[in-house]
Specification:
Length: 164
């Protein structure tokens, strides 16, 4: 997490926009490949939610943009690129492996829960370490949204599996 402690709210929002784009792509792909109607529905809902998050983030830019500039560009650009990597979202190969399994929908939900929990944890830690008030606020908001997604996914997994 080196370098994020000085990220401004603007830098956090710009990075989060990349996260939401990746999330939308992931959930859209999963919604078209899910086997059950319930899984297709939840993945489609989450893809739409990522679009709504992107719109929310775009609307937040003016709040944080005053005086914002890419002060830490050499640190910030790798941070953006990391979110498109396999570190959080599973690789296409892993997704294909899961989709071929007998329990594809349950395992797909597990992959999504894992990604949401990783993001939530990352953003919680980032909020705790961030020294700028607006960066801290933006990271905390992102952590809460990712936690909300993980809870939705866990609830649907319970319903799909029939186990409490």
């Amino acid at each position: 997490m080196s370098g994020i402690e000085n990220f401004s709210g603007f830098e956090v929002i710009r990075a989060a926009m990349e996260v939401e784009k990746q999330g939308r792509q992931f959930y859209s792909a999963m919604s078209t490949r899910a086997h059950s109607e319930m899984a297709r529905e939840i993945f489609s809902l989450l893809a739409q939610d990522e679009i709504a998050h992107l719109t929310t983030l775009e609307n937040m830019v003016p709040k944080y943009q005053d005086g914002a500039f890419w002060e830490n560009e050499e640190l910030f650009l790798p941070y953006l690129r990391r979110f498109s990597s396999e570190r959080v979202f599973p690789s296409p190969e892993r997704i294909e492996e899961v989709l071929r399994s007998k329990q594809a929908d349950l395992q797909s939900l597990a992959l999504a829960i894992e990604a949401e929990e990783k993001f939530a944890e990352y953003f919680r830690l980032a909020a705790a370490q961030c020294l700028t008030a607006d960066g801290k606020e933006a990271f905390a908001w992102l952590a809460a949204e990712e936690e909300r997604h993980a809870k939705i996914l866990k609830d649907r997994r319970e319903k799909l599996s029939g186990k409490p």
